[in-house]
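Can anyone check this?
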Amino acid sequence: MHDIRAIRDNPDAFVAGWSSRGVEDARAIVDELLKLDRELRAAQTAGQEGLAKRNAASKAIGAAMAKKDMAEAERLKAEVESLKGEIAAAEETEREVGGRLRDLLAAQKNLAADDVPDGEDESANVEVSRWGTPREGGPAKDHADLGEALGLLDFEAAARMSGARFAVLKGGLARLERAVGQFMLDVQTGEHGYLEVNPPYLVRDEAMFGTGQLPKFEEDLFRVGEHLLIPTAEVSLTNLVREQILPESELTTPIRYTALTPCFRAEAGSAGRDTRGLIRQHQFHKVELVSITRPEDSEAEHERMVGCAEAILQRLELPYRKVLLCKGDMGFSARKTYDLEVWLPSQNTYREISSCSNCGDFQARRMDARFKRDGEKKTEFVHTLNGSGLAVGRTLVAILENYQQDDGSIRVPSALIPYTGGVERIAAD
């Protein structure tokens, strides 16, 4: 969410910023925002002036009656009645125009940070670094084929009960997925200082609005009665500070939350993409990382968060690359995003497994999440950051493909063996 005062003060910056993020009608949007802003302030002024006149007339009625000037008193009473109508009309205009202004502001994406590269899509993303070396030779079967051949991954049974984009994991594969999630949580809490949280999976609309899923991406969400299923624990964790004013002492070290939760996504905008396998499911698990910081700390915290996600891939010895997204490829709420892409032998390419974003004060404004510096009276908006540490299902995909053996079995990464009860290899039952 943007501050209309900032748009009023520097409209060209928002035209340029939104245009660079692929908004074709940025100038028209800014012009409409400023028009609504003028109308809102005019209605507010009219209402305030009407109230002042009504109060003055009401006082004058008493004075006229004290002088027994009944004609003047009646005239003033008529004026008060007329002013009541004007005030009501101004208030109605304020509500209507204010609502339109808020809705239009809420639909606009965040502005990119200065060091984010220009570009319209993923082809303009910038590779920052690589870790590990993709293996040469050996089997390179797709994870879905591997799981089905082991008899431990069943898409047909899932489809019979739930439809497409669901899967049933069994036996050693189900245990391996559980081990992956537990391992990630232990590293993020025990080594990286994140506080584990077990949050709600169902949230209200205002929580989704706070993190930017609503109103723009409602079609990608699953609604259950008056609630929505979370597409990521980012929603629940970030909203822990909604409508709060934190003392600066709580932010001298950033607040860091993590959670392992199921995630639910309709994937309405991804028709035809990754329809087979575990990469793009309606239901999956993910370890989410969320940080709440002072504005001056968010850039360093962003780099740290990416490092915390990278540590998981390194401990699992999975080759990956780190990519800085261009302006056109970033998510709605992000001002800067790094993606981590893991190597998948079956596709002979890197695929996204984590996305870590600094949202600046964009989400905080939508949630009214603020803090007060020591000795200061005014408040400021916090900065919020979120990232995957990691997506459990996609990590399982990467393990299956990178640790597959010639006989079709899967070697368990050494870091996970303590979590599998000592099981070092997954084979057909």
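Reply from J.R.: I decoded it. The chain has a mean pLDDT of 95.
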